Amino acid sequence: MIRLQPPIFLLNLKAYMWGREVVEFAKSVEKISKEIEMSFIIAPQVIDVYRVAEAVDLPVFSPTIDPISPGRGVGKILPEAIKEAGACGVLINHSENERTLREIRQCILKAHELDLLTLVCADSPESAAAVTLLGADLVLPEPPELIGTLRSVGREMSRFLIDSVNKVKQINSRTFVLAGAGIASPEDAAQVIQLGADGLGASRIIYEAKDRVKFVRETALAMLREWEKRK
Predict the structure, then answer these.
(1) Is 182 in contact with 156 (CB distance < 8 Å)?
(2) How confident is the model at residue 140, as a pLDDT?
């Protein structure tokens, strides 16, 4: 199983980017990763996992899996296929693709059978604690009302993030906590690291930034500067 080095920057591309465009973006991120010593995760469309994993030497996460085994399962995402496609991890339970607690547990178990890291989303500090107990490797707590708004959780709901970090770390200090929802600037990124996060996830702002590569680089540098202060 791959080892991640915080701070961790999740580039969750959702349905904003696909095909050749996502490959070129991933190559730009790979260049940044050689300059800045931290972990970058690319989460493309499921159909692009293979092409991105083939093109760059970066952790690639599938945006979802289904807890199924080889055999029947039309339209489902087979974890074994995701693993062979080159993914080293999976996102589970994003607010745009929610799962029951039972399904989350099944997905985590199946992913771990295949040495895939699990990044599990949560909509409250209590949910963040629950998915940590279920075995998540990384937890991404996001207040649903801020997702996609460009209003940062660090500015708008700092207590949400602080409580989430505390609850997760009390259960397992080795579980990484990423901040999510509304992060739209290097200043937002620095703030969530100050508040205790091990990294962050960004989506919409990557697509909308006038210069995506510049945004990623400046945000990563802001994260790393704050991370160094915590040592």
Answers:
(1) yes
(2) 97
| 94 tagged catalytic | yes
Q: What is the pLDDT of residue 115?
A: 97
> Which of 84, 126, 142, 218 is the catalytic position?
142
- Rounded to whole angstroms, the Cα distance separating 109 from 168 reads 19
Specify the length of the chain in residues.
231
Distance of CA 36 to CAs 32, 209, 219, Å? 6, 20, 11
Buried b (16+ CB within 10 A) or exposed e, 122-149: bbbbebbbbbbebbbbbbbbbbeebbbe
Is 8-229 in CATH node 3.40.1280.10?
no
**Cα distance between residue 139 and residue 122, in whole Å:** 7
User: In whole angstroms, what is the distance from residue 20 CA to residue 56 CA?
Assistant: 13
d(CA 73, CA 117): 23
pLDDT at 29: 98
CB 54 within 8 A of CB 37: no
Q: With left for phi above 0 and alpha for psi between -120 and 50, is residue 14 left, alpha or beta? A: left
Q: What is the pLDDT of residue 182?
A: 83
- Evaluate whether 18 touches 45 at the Cβ level (below 8 Å): yes
Task: At 100, list the tokens.
Answer: 């029951």
Q: Average pLDDT for consecutive 10-residue bins of the chain (231 residues)? A: 93 96 98 96 98 98 96 94 98 92 96 98 96 98 82 84 97 96 91 96 91 97 94 72
Give me the catalytic one of 30, 80, 94, 112. Answer: 94
